[in-house]
Design goal:
Rossmann fold; 50% helix; binds BIS(adenosine)-5'-pentaphosphate
């Protein structure tokens, strides 16, 4: 099963991708996490992407496509893959189709999580991540156990100002990506405003009706 997950910042892509990864035993490829890891390592790529992340702008297509391409080649042992936050531009979508075609694979579904802009700010300010497990919490909507509170971290780009930029970038670039998958009848759009488990059950129900093999 090969899925892509599209949605605004803080729409719940990471939360749902983790659940789907566990449920279907998929390889979870999050371009945001990969880019933050490069930044933290202070690698050559990390130094290049730092200012894009800091200002809520998209990292150039060529860099992200290369990163994802390298991961896909090493993915052949997993039962499938979920791409979280990729593609975000039409160029990325076309590059992904080409890379998969070379591997003899196709995208089975593109999951679009829809959440109004008004909801994302509260999600952003309350988001905390556990660096030990990679789990994402929310202080109000998905509270962490009290004993791990001290080690939770907040992302540098989770500020109101950077969030506005991230939202603006999302709305500017995503329409052709959504059309790309809708035209191929691969788009599954779900309401991302109910509780995470409800959104997950909706995704499972919609995916099960597709009868995806392999
Ligand atoms: P990335 O890390 O992908 O950030 P994003 O798209 O802004 O998405 P987020 O990670 O903020 O949110 P999410 O949708 O995963 O929501 P989450 O589940 O955490 O990218 C960061 C940056 O990297 C980009 O700005 C860009 O610079 C660069 N980049 C990444 N990919 C790129 C690409 N392909 N091309 C170019 N540049 C790229 O949930 C958010 C919070 O809400 C959590 O606290 C969670 O607990 C809570 N929550 C989740 N679901 C619910 C719910 N149903 N109800 C209530 N609360 C909920």
């Amino acid at each position: 099963m090969r899925l892509v997950m599209i949605g605004a910042p803080a729409s719940g892509k990471g939360t749902q991708a983790h659940k789907l990864t566990r449920h279907f035993e998929l390889d979870h490829i999050s371009t945001g996490e990969m880019l933050r890891a490069e930044e933290a390592k202070r690698s050559e790529l990390g130094m290049v992407v730092e200012s894009y992340l800091k200002h809520g702008q998209l990292v150039p297509d060529s860099l992200v496509v290369r990163l994802v391409g390298e991961r896909l080649i090493h993915n052949h042992l997993a039962q499938g893959v979920i791409l979280d936050g990729f593609p975000r531009t039409l160029n990325q979508a076309l590059a992904l189709d080409k890379a998969l075609q070379e591997l003899g694979q196709v995208i089975d579904a593109a999951l679009l999580i829809e959440v109004p802009d008004s909801a994302v700010l509260e999600r952003i300010t309350g988001r905390r991540a556990d660096p030990e497990t990679g789990r994402i919490y929310h202080l109000k909507f998905s509270p962490p156990p009290p004993e791990i509170l001290h080690r939770l971290v907040q992302r540098d780009d989770d500020t109101t100002e950077v969030m506005q930029a991230r939202l603006g970038t999302y709305h500017e670039r995503i329409a052709p990506v959504v059309d790309h998958y809708r035209n191929r009848r691969l788009l599954i759009a779900v309401d991302g405003t109910p509780a995470p488990e409800e959104v997950f059950q909706e995704l499972l129900g919609r995916l099960s009706s597709l009868n995806i093999r392999g």
